[in-house]
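User: Some background: our group keeps a shared notebook of sequences we're curious about, and every so often someone picks one and asks for a predicted structure to add to the entry. Today it's my turn. The entry only has the sequence so far, pasted here. Could you supply the structure so I can complete it?
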Amino acid sequence: MEVTLKYIAESICGTVEGDDQVLIKGINSLVLAEKGEISFFSDPRLKDQVRITKASAIIVKEVISLYQGPQLIVADPSLAYAKVATIFAPPIPRFPGISEKSIIGEGARIGKGVSIYPFVYVGRESTIGNEVTLFPGVYIGERVTVGNESVIYPNVTVMSDCVIGKKVIIHAGTVIGSDGFGFAPQSDDNYKKIPQLGNVIMEDNIEIGANVVIDRATMGSTIIRKGVKLDNLIQIGHNVEIGENTVMAGQSGIAGSTKVGQNCMFGGQVGITGHVKIAKGTKAAAQSGINSHILKENTTVYGTPAFEYRKAQLSHIIFRRLPELKEKIEKMGKEINDIKNR
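Assistant: Of course. Here's the predicted structure to add to the notebook entry:
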């Protein structure tokens, strides 16, 4: 596939400085780009790479003198890169129709234009929307709903009664609607399993990474609001609610019944205890441990326990100096004792 630079500019609402008829066949980094490919420049630290790049065009915020070829001017080069990459991304492979090697349960309703690969199981009374793609090994339990144009990759499990919205992407190995972690201690030091009677509701335009687990609610629903993006290897406990457009990096976890506001951002390995409220716009740096409510909107936190980012940084600086400070205090104590003795 080859398109003109003009076509790309019109597709992403950019303008071209230079020859807009240059043919572009792909997108790549500044270092790896070859003739016929486009790259992007947004980090001043990469000036040396701009000088040596072989890209036929670059995406920039404003015209730069370091590069002599055509330049595509946009407000946000990083966002523009994502849009241009979409142009060249290969389409999702689709099985033509419903494989004879799949199993469709009694009373299941299958929409138009679906792609259901071999070895897919769709449970009784489930509803699969139009243009849905189910890859091999997908298990859809009973009375599940999967919305239009959703894509579910291999070996994903969606347990009974869960609801998947429209244009949802779920990557390989993820489990939606497994039992929440509920056990009641008994007098003989054993634990009685608490039946998990709820479900999981996922709204529209959500993307879930590989090997994520989202537990069903004890009662009611675990809710993932529209636009949420979850990275790989994330655990979401029972009755959690994640607000719209919140993003979470890999190996993070949220314990049961916590409510996360919209537009939050969590780095890798963030842990959030149960039954807390996280305000809209909260940001948590990687490996932060949140063990209490965050009620002020647009707060950035860091550390374990997590607290205000700037204070946490200053505290960390002091912590690293503790051995030095300890030596100084011990020296001062010795000098004071010497003075007293004299």
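Suggested note for the entry: The longest strand covers residues 37-40. The mean pLDDT is 95.
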